[in-house]
Amino acid sequence: MLEAVRTFWKYNFWAQDQFFAVVSELTDEEFTRDLGDGNGSIRDKLGHVCAADDVWMRRIEGEVSPPFKLDFTDKFNYIERQKAVRHKYHALIDGLSEVDLLREISYKNLKGVEFTTPLVQILLHVSNHATYHRGQAASLIRRVKGKPPVTDMIEYFRAH
């Protein structure tokens, strides 16, 4: 199971890099433009992933009620913040053992409801959550720029 978790996270980091490259080329207006129909902006979608990644890491670290913050000001601040959160996941994933994956993490969700979940399930959820919202962000990028980054997992495997 450990190797599968590491593979999902290596893929996740690679997919982030694909988005960082495209986001860097967007204008600030393109990054922050509300595209309507309930989708928000590219910043909103990617910011949601970044904030959720941060909340989950803080829960793993034992913080009781971490805040959910979309507090970056521009695309470069977003990339910087996502890379800082990513650094923590990278260190965690690199240091894991099979036994660590079974460690129970107790936390409260954003509504204050308490849960206890094995670390492996949290790590798989966080990676999958990011994939889901990157798909939404890709759709928004298509509307703004015409071509979103390619982040299919098979492309990651082909590249590595």
Keywords:
single chain, 160 residues, mainly alpha, Four Helix Bundle (Hemerythrin (Met), subunit A), two-stranded antiparallel ribbon, 7 helices, 2 strands, globular
In short:
With 160 residues, this protein is mainly α.
Strands, helices and their partners?
Layout: H1 2-25, H2 28-32, H3 42-60, H4 75-95, H5 98-101, E1 104-108, E2 114-118, H6 119-145, H7 153-159
Antiparallel strand pairs: 1-2
Helix pairs in contact: 1-4, 1-6, 3-4, 3-6
What does this structure look like?
This protein is mainly alpha-helical and 160 residues long. The protein has a single domain (2-159), classed as Four Helix Bundle (Hemerythrin (Met), subunit A) (Up-down Bundle), CATH 1.20.120. It has helices at residues 2-25, 28-32, 42-60, 75-95, 98-101, 119-145, 153-159; strands at residues 104-108, 114-118. It has a two-stranded antiparallel sheet with strand order 1-2. The longest helix is centred in the last third of the chain and has 27 residues, at 119-145. The chain is globular.
Radius of gyration: 16 Å
Question: How large a portion of the residues is in β-strands, by DSSP E?
Answer: 5-15%
Structural class: mainly alpha
Number of strands: 2
CATH topological fold name:
Four Helix Bundle (Hemerythrin (Met), subunit A)
Largest sheet: 2 strands, antiparallel
Shape: globular
For the record, give the distance between the C-alpha atoms at the N and C termini, rounded to a whole number.
20 Å
Domains, number: 1
Provide the helix percentage.
Answer: 55-70%
CATH homologous superfamily designation: dinb family like domain
> Reading side by side through the largest sheet, how are the strands ordered?
1-2
* Order of helix and strand elements from N to C terminus: HHHHHEEHH
Quaternary organisation of the protein chains: single chain
Q: Mean pLDDT, as a whole number? A: 94
